[in-house]
Write a structure and sequence with these properties.
The protein has about 140 residues and is mainly alpha-helical. It contains seven helices and no strands. It has helices spanning about 5-20, 20-35, 55-75, 80, 85-90, 100-115, 120-140. It is globular and about 40 Å long. The protein starts with a helix and ends in a 5-residue tail after the last helix.
Length: about 140
């Protein structure tokens, strides 16, 4: 699904509002994914504590949102922008690419929870298209 200029503008504007809480949002989204989709825990088994309050879960959630911020800045070339992350997840971490969509769903949920007035239906559609593009870009090295 391609992003229109309107979609890109909405994503950038929403990210400008969300960026200040990115670490918190990322921790919340990752924690929700680990609880709602327990099979995703296999990639983090060496962490021990995978509870929503875990420092490692919160820290990695912040890392994820940092990458998402990078993707917003490189929205015109998501595949190029996220190439290194795609390679890391495909060849070293061997993450099932279906998990990128699962995480994207949890990010959308958290955005809606934290920004109910700003996360309008139009913004939701644009952000969802963007996150699908991110998932596609992260899956690039799997093909």
């Amino acid at each position: 699904m391609s992003l229109s200029e309107t979609d890109k503008s909405r994503v950038r504007a929403f990210w400008a509002k969300a960026e200040g809480k990115a670490n918190e949002l990322g921790g919340e989204a990752l924690a929700r994914m680990l609880v709602s989709t327990p099979q995703t825990k296999t990639y983090f088994a060496n962490w021990g504590d995978l509870s929503p309050q875990s420092a490692k879960v919160r820290k990695h959630g912040a890392t994820i949102m940092g990458a998402l911020g990078k993707a917003v800045k490189g929205i015109d070339d998501l595949t190029g922008t996220l190439s290194d992350l795609s390679e890391l997840h495909a060849f070293k971490l061997r993450v099932d690419p279906a998990n990128f969509k699962i995480l994207g769903h949890n990010i959308i949920l958290v955005f809606a929870m934290y920004f109910p007035a700003d996360f309008t239906p139009e913004v939701h559609v644009s952000v969802e298209k963007f996150l699908q593009g991110v998932a596609w870009a992260l899956s690039e090295h799997y093909r």
